Structure to design on (888 residues):
């Protein structure tokens, strides 16, 4: 952050600002205005011409966006909003109170507000909710010359002109042609002869995370979105998908460790909000751990006879909990990358069981050596611990890989069934298995 | 996967295949060939024309790529490799044995092999290693007409023509102009007057994860890469960045639960490989848990007097471990998104301490009520547990947010310092704090 620019804004030196802004891009202007004094930031924002103002506006945080809208006149709001791309306008309206959203919608043309309304109607995680409707649409009978002229004439507010979509009768999507194909071709050729008819497309109702996988798989820059009847209704561009992927991954990271996901960056979230996002799981886990504690209490008789047993409980719980978390996280990640799906569940359990057995044999051997050396060559103890370890690991990995799948079957986010809940189930299992085996082995 | 196509390939019905392939895109052709019998897949691959063959080749897994190269003649290898984009060739050569790589490099022009060699020299996580050198380069004195002709003439093998870079003398990068600007402008205008001179660029030696954040921040589709002296050496396109982000996130997911990251998809990795990726951490954790067990043993006297204490150990360890994992994961994610950096460490500790206190007050109250009801209104026990909980949570969250920062200072991946190691430290702390407080409170 350049301190000079900041002080120029705060001192209100408008002439200097205009010179500076001419050499900056919209992202950096938004960035520096976010850090300036609020009143001065609004003043400086007013200096920008409409197109740049709309661009800068789209990069502001929603707090500043709302502040700006509140301090502008209706005419000024109209000027910015007419230049704001559809998808940025949708993002803004989704995040502000209804009355602000209504004022913004009223400020634009009926046509634009209708389109925004339609996109707002799509479910939050659907393709429709992230698409934009600013597309270059061609028809197959156009020549390359006509197509280029039509692109040129369609104005600069199209989200991407790199990929142009070709529609037939009823606005049904029939092909795609990229700008480079048009540029490399003779001006007299027909769009219909140049277009690729193997179009990869998405339906507006599809899940946006699956769409992200389609982008990766097919190396796409943009994807056309069609209605259920095949009509072209919009596109999703890769920069929006990048945001979707980042958001979805951030959510998964949070859920895996039992934190309620939130959109705001870490340092911009208050401590009470942070605490609130984390406390539910800590409470649930405390309750669950209490249950494990109660289970241990029921084995008090065994512990009185052989207090040494207690020394192995943290190790068994730790190994089990961690093994389960490894499996669940690998499966959750595989599912969000589209590598694993519900029908794979049996394959998964079989794999994870074998992995658990391999791991537990190695852990068992290490443990056997340790007990043999440290506890007077106590064979029985070594066997009890090693056997418990194997059972715990198999259970942990089987549960770890099954629960995320079950979550998906129940249409929950697989990450909800993550490490914390699995740890709890596995901890209880580890304790019960261990004491049960110990009781048999030592006749207590 | 279409079973019909698969059987047509396996039966070697080449005429039918040619018809089918004409209606498929490269990704899907690669996909279906991957699933066919190996010999038949190579036969079918030979049917493709050079450009499509190169495209299909770039989507194969490295195993199939190597198999194809091994079964082709030198001339055939040359034909495909000359059509293969630089970055896909680099990816391939990085993954195959040296002799295969050498054969491929020998098959292409000296110019192309020199460029590939240069990219291979960049460190694995650098911007240079993911860039490609196929760029549209313009000079400022060209007119729009000349620029469009030059783009048209430069052939279809450029990675993207959407963004064109303008270089001055010494090939230094001086501006950028997008295809839509060229298309919307008068044919007689000069590139130098249309170009944007506020170019966002990367240096070849920069870290590729930081580059990913730059793409998100500035909504980029491609970024020019310059040498240390400012000369244009290549570009990185957003589809490659999408792959980088997915890879880095997948690595972080694995590391957070103590799994050694691997590039291969879950279901394509053998069980022994899976077990190998997970066993190191399980062994380290078992050792660490053994230490915690040993610590518990040293408090055997206290446990003999008051065996009930043991029932609270799992709860304390669970709450502490989980609270620490929450903090570390939030900080790791914040760091990889570029929201948190090393200088924020004190701010982080102060925030996390407050979060810990808020959470532990709530957990403490819940716990107090429970103990009061379940354990004959034992005030002292309730205080001991609640106090231990607070100390454990503060320590857990402070360690949880500090270790990832320390890792970054030591130039390690912050995710290495993740949940498992933090859990272990916190478990030991929880046990020691709890028994120390209990001893004082109960005079044992």
């Amino acid at each position: 952050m350049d301190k000079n620019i900041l002080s120029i804004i705060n001192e209100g030196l408008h002439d200097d600002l205009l010179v500076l802004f001419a050499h900056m891009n919209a992202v950096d202007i938004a960035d520096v205005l976010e850090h300036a004094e609020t009143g001065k930031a609004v003043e400086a924002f007013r200096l920008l011409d409409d197109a740049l103002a709309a661009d800068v506006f789209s990069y502001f945080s929603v707090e500043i966006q709302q502040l700006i809208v509140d301090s502008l006149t209706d005419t000024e709001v109209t000027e910015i909003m007419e230049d704001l791309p559809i998808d940025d306008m949708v993002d803004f309206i989704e995040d502000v109170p209804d009355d602000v959203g209504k004022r913004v919608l009223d400020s634009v043309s009926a046509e634009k507000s209708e389109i925004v309304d339609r996109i707002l109607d799509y479910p939050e995680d659907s393709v429709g909710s992230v698409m934009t409707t600013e597309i270059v649409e061609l028809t197959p009978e156009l020549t390359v010359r006509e197509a280029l002229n039509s692109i040129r004439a369609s104005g600069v507010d199209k989200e991407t002109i790199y990929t142009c979509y070709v529609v037939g009768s009823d606005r049904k999507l029939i092909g795609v042609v990229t700008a480079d194909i048009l540029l490399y071709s003779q001006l007299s050729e027909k769009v219909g002869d140049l277009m690729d008819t193997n179009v990869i497309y998405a339906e507006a109702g599809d899940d946006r995370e699956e769409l992200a996988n389609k982008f990766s798989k097919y190396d796409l820059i943009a994807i056309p979105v069609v209605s259920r009847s095949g009509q072209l209704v919009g596109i999703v561009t890769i920069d929006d998908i990048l945001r979707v992927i980042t958001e979805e991954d951030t959510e998964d990271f949070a859920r895996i460790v039992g934190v309620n996901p939130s959109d705001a960056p870490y340092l911009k979230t208050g401590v009470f909000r942070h605490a609130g996002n984390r406390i539910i799981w800590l409470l649930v886990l405390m309750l669950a751990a209490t249950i494990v504690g109660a289970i241990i209490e029921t084995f008090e008789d065994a512990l009185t006879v052989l207090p040494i047993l207690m020394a192995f409980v943290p190790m068994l719980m730790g190994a089990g909990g961690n093994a389960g978390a490894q499996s669940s996280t690998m499966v959750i990640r595989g599912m969000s990358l589209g590598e694993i799906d519900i029908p794979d569940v049996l394959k998964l359990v079989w794999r994870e069981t074998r992995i658990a057995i391999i791991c537990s044999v190695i852990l068992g051997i290490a443990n056997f050596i340790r007990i043999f050396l440290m506890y007077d060559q106590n064979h029985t103890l070594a066997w009890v611990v090693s056997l418990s370890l194997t059972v715990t690991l198999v259970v942990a990995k089987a549960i770890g890989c099954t629960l995320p799948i079950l979550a998906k079957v129940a249409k929950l986010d697989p990450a909800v069934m993550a490490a914390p809940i699995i740890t709890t189930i596995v901890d209880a299992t580890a304790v019960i298995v261990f004491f049960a085996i110990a009781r048999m082995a030592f006749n207590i």
User: Anything to note?
Assistant: The two ends of chain A are 69 Å apart (CA to CA).
